[in-house]
Q: What sequence folds into this?
């Protein structure tokens, strides 16, 4: 019986954000625009940071990594959804589904850890300014980015190996616009307790722990800022942190709701809405959040665009 059931899971049907055909044109236009803005915005951030020697600092090094991860996270999910809408084909093969899930978790974990790393960088810069260059050495920066890349690879691979042992029989309709872990587990007709325990362990490690570290870092930062004697100094410090706090609220506000809230309070609609926030909206907004209030980055972007315009004329 099991071999027959296993072959029946050769593909899944992604039901998408809406099952009403009249919504598809609007969704296609909206997500195409969002994806183009995401790609252009994040690639501009990476190019601006890499081309300006003044931005070769730990803070911008982490920001360039975050922009790369955001670009990859959006590219893993949005283009497939756009193709499905355009071709009116909602199917995705089982291997492609697992591949998409692997990269979704890989880049999602990276996003979470990098946001926490950036909070630690701000903590050192504001609370220990005299020792900043010593603490945030090139070696530590390499470890803080290289470590998450390696660990994300192994965690995501474990998710896939655990998923590959499950049997899917009967309904293969996935009420989502990409292959996510939680909806897939609901479709399995075998015991998923091991998978669910691993999901909770990983969520604790890569969502709850970084979030607690961010809160601890910003608690110390707020105390340090309030001790600054000049109003101008306090304003500058708050301005430096506000953009990062906006990203923290956007990202963790949605991921905690999906992966750490009890299943009894989660619905397919809420999961899809949350997924749109952290796979499409947050990657699109991050370049604006980080560049609009950052004079150095705006200057680097201006110089980069002027150089490209001059070269083409």
A:
């Amino acid at each position: 019986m099991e071999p027959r059931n296993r072959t029946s899971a050769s593909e899944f049907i992604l039901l998408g954000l809406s099952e009403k055909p009249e919504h598809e044109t609007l969704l296609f236009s909206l997500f195409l625009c969002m994806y183009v803005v995401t790609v252009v915005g994040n690639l501009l951030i990476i190019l601006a940071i890499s081309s300006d020697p003044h931005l070769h600092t730990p803070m911008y090094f982490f920001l360039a990594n975050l922009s790369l991860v955001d670009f990859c996270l959006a590219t893993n999910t949005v283009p497939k959804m756009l193709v499905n809408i355009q071709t009116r084909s909602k199917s995705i093969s089982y291997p492609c589904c697992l591949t998409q899930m692997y990269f979704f978790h890989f880049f999602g974990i990276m996003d979470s850890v990098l946001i926490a790393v950036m909070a630690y960088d701000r903590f050192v810069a504001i609370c220990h300014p005299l020792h900043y260059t010593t603490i945030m050495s090139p070696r530590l920066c390499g470890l803080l980015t290289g470590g998450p890349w390696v660990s994300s690879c192994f965690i995501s691979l474990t998710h896939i190996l655990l998923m590959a042992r499950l049997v899917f029989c009967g309904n293969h309709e996935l009420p989502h616009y990409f292959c996510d872990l939680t909806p897939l587990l609901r479709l399995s007709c075998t015991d998923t307790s091991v998978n669910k325990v691993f999901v909770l362990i990983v969520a604790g490690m890569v969502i709850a722990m970084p979030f607690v570290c961010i809160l601890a870092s910003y608690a110390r930062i707020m105390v340090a800022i309030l001790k600054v004697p000049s109003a101008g100094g306090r304003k500058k410090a708050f301005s430096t942190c506000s953009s990062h706090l906006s990203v923290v609220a956007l990202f963790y506000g949605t991921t905690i709701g999906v992966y750490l809230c009890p299943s009894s309070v989660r619905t397919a609609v809420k999961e899809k809405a949350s997924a749109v926030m952290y796979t499409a909206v947050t990657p699109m907004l991050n370049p604006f959040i980080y560049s609009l209030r950052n004079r150095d980055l705006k200057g680097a972007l201006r110089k980069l665009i002027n150089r490209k315009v001059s070269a083409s004329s």
User: Anything to note?
Assistant: Confidence is low (pLDDT under 50) at residues 1-8.
